[in-house]
Amino acid sequence: FKQKTAYEIGVRLVGSEMCIRDSYPATPAEERPCAESIVSRIATQAYRRTVTGEDVAGPMSFYDEATQNSGFEIGVRTALQAILASPSFIFRLEQAPQNAVPGDSYRLGDIDLASRLSFFLWGMGPDEELRRVAEQGSLSEAEIERQVDRMLADSRSEALATRFASQWLRLQDAEKNNPEPFLYPDFTGQLRNDLVQETQLLFGHLVQEDRSLLELLTADYTFINDRLANHYGIPGVNGSQFRRVDYSDDTRRGILGHGSILLLTSMSNRTSPVLRGKWVREVLMGTPPPPPPPGIPDFEETTGAVDGRVLSTRERMEAHRANPTCNSCHRFIDPIGLALDSYDVTGRWRIRERGAEIDTRGELYDGTLIDSPGALIEALLSRPEPLLRTFTSNLMAYGLGRRIGYADQPVVRSVVREAALNDYRISSFVLGVVMSDAFRMQSPASLSSETSIPDGG
């Protein structure tokens, strides 16, 4: 680490630069005690526990060496470098009980459980309150529930939106699509960022207000600024600050009407009902279609014109599905994507494509007829179990830091059943994951005195 970078990270760990600068020594005799106080405070937050004398002695040895030639501030920065290079900062070191044997399950200690909980909900180490409760050994089930409620209401729970929801919904894929400037001249990188932030803000709102997960699909409101409002054609929004805006019609409900989702499931020069249908099935329903068999031509290779007339996306899809091998999968995917084809590549509403009226009619695998985003949402919510279980599996995988296997499915189903009793509120899913044995216990194949989990700070 560069010295400046180490200092800035140390400032972030403590909370503010004034916390460090207010401790500056007034005389040379006060320098080392002052440095030791700074190192102790930062190490406590960096290591996510109360530090020992040995924990402080290591960084202080670097301070002593650096301060001889470079003075107090460089000495402190060098000590911070040592803290940031420590395994106690880079990894979450979970202590195994002394009497544990390989293959046996054991409950995590309160300090380790507090770190696991904090990184799950906040994406950072425990705050002072959670750390104090853990060090007192007071993380009972009732206390865990109280801490979960407190932490979800805290603004730091936005990490569930910017990290978990972004990974689950694959918002990072929006960066990969650069709409053709000739076709979409108004699209900019700033607009792309706003589209992603809109989706993150909606999920963050559901977390902090403890709303129903199903509102992710049904919300008749969103969070936009003036740039997004102009893009969507929503009047009366001024300024760059995001704010909640209610929809005046039913054309744009929930995340299926968000430009971020529509952008990441499009090509650069046209919409892709195949990608959109695949995304809904794979990301929301947890039923990814099989890969295409070898030797089948891509959709892009399907002829785009007949008798000099340019075919619409629907007509090209129908020609592609004429192959029985293709139709076996596309009949499950295409109706979903076609229902969303009234949105263009960038998420704007449209009624024509290349001068022809868009036909969004389709039939789902169970015979349900759909012809619009609203009809698709109603069809998905008529059988919400796949969405609920897929969300729970992804949330559990995020909290545990590992893939969810068949052995975890009873827990997933149990969490969904319990959440149903509370209208599928976000807190019910979070608490279900946190209170599960998979989250609160450890069962490594082989045990050392410590089990490490990569953390990256």
Task: Describe this entry's structure for a reader.
- 37% of the residues are buried.
- Helix 1 (3-14) packs across helix 3, helix 16 packs antiparallel against helix 17 (324-339) and helix 20 (409-420) packs antiparallel against helix 21.
- The longest helix is centred in the middle third of the chain and has 20 residues, at 189-208.
- Helix content is 52%, strand content 7%.
- It has helices at 3-14, 17-21, 31-47, 53-70, 72-84, 87-90, 110-121, 128-135, 141-153, 159-168, 189-208, 215-218, 226-232, 259-264, 273-284, 313-321, 324-339, 373-382, 385-400, 409-420, 426-434, 437-440, and strands spanning 91-95, 106-107, 221-224, 243-246, 305-306, 309-310, 352-353, 356-357, 362-363, 369-370, 441-442, 450-454.
- The chain is mainly α and 457 residues long.
